[in-house]
Specification:
Number of strands: 0
Number of domains: 1
Helix content: over 70%
CATH superfamily: ABC transporter involved in vitamin B12 uptake, BtuC
Number of helices: 12
Largest sheet: none
CATH architecture: Orthogonal Bundle
Strand content: under 5%
CATH topology: ABC transporter involved in vitamin B12 uptake, BtuC
Shape: globular
Length: 296
């Protein structure tokens, strides 16, 4: 009708790799992002990506593999953040800011000493979906399967720590061990996504789909599935929008997510207006009965 062949980009091998990578990353960040958002650590996506960038630079200078260096650095950063936030005097946002900005600054300092390596980190900074390799696809797929397995086998423990971290040990939940496992999952998610979305856009991928899902449901299990599906779907559609509109793929995905967020806000506002007789712009606090329903 409009003279646009939607399937045209699928004839290119690089685009098929890119759309597969984007869809898996969207699902992955949507799933992990639920725990990040509900634990009120939304800033951690932005911060951890900066931290991983620093680790990647250190690894490059030392001659290590990107995924090995960035993975180890990201995991240690996540552990350090978790340990710091356990101290009552320091909030999670402050701990994230200290650890991640110091790591990013180290990476910048190393690059400034050897400016010739800057071009090697363009993809890490801004993403490079159209340069996805088979290795990248296998890494993303492996992290996605690992994350799904962790959520499936440790669902109750993760749920407990998400909503009642102080009481969890009383009921036999090994908080420290589960926190370390979540730190590993989060670090792996950032590492798998950073070359696809870039440092500047990972936070949006971790936060927007879970927030949309939270606007649409109060049930935790439904929120997990909805956020994962939303993340994957937005990434899939965003790639086609990127191709036909000739704009950066990562930016296209994030802008599409933001547009859905606006629609969700508008829909919830209208729904609440019709139900309560006045607009409600944000989700309300859960009642005790609804909080209990989250665990069902």
């Amino acid at each position: 009708m409009f003279g646009i062949d939607v399937t045209e980009p699928l004839q290119f091998d690089f685009f098929r790799n890119a759309i597969l990578a984007a869809t898996m990353v969207g699902a992955l960040t949507g799933l992990v992002g639920v725990f990040v958002v509900l634990r009120r650590m939304s800033y951690i996506g932005h911060g951890m990506s900066h931290s991983v960038f620093g680790g990647a630079v250190v690894g490059y200078v030392a001659g290590f593999n990107f995924y090995v260096a960035a993975g180890l650095w990201g995991f240690l950063s996540a552990l350090l953040i978790n340990q710091t936030t356990r101290r009552r005097q320091i909030g999670a946002d402050a701990a994230i800011g200290i650890v991640t900005t110091a790591s990013f600054a180290l990476g910048v300092a190393l690059i400034s000493r050897a400016s010739s390596i800057t071009r090697n980190f363009d993809a890490a900074l801004f993403g490079n979906l159209l340069g996805v390799s088979r290795t990248d696809l296998w890494v993303i797929a492996g992290v996605l399967v690992f994350t799904i397995a962790v959520v499936f086998f440790f669902y109750k423990q993760l749920l407990f720590l998400t909503f009642d971290v102080d009481v969890a040990p009383i009921y036999g939940v090994p908080a420290g061990w589960i926190d370390s496992l979540f730190a590993l999952v989060l670090a792996a998610t950032i590492i798998a996504s950073i070359r696809i979305m870039g440092v500047t856009l990972i936070a949006a991928s971790l936060v927007i789909p879970p927030v949309i899902a939270r606007l649409l449901t109060d049930r935790f299990a439904v929120m997990l599935v909805l956020s994962t599906v939303l993340g994957a779907l937005v990434a899939f559609v965003g790639m086609f929008v990127s191709y036909h509109a000739d704009i950066a793929s990562g930016a296209s995905i994030v802008l599409l997510s933001a547009a859905l967020f606006v629609l969700a806000i508008a829909g919830v506002t209208v729904r609440n207006w019709l139900r309560f007789g006045h607009p409600v712009l944000a989700t309300r606090e859960l009642t005790s009965a609804e909080s209990k329903a989250l665990f069902d």
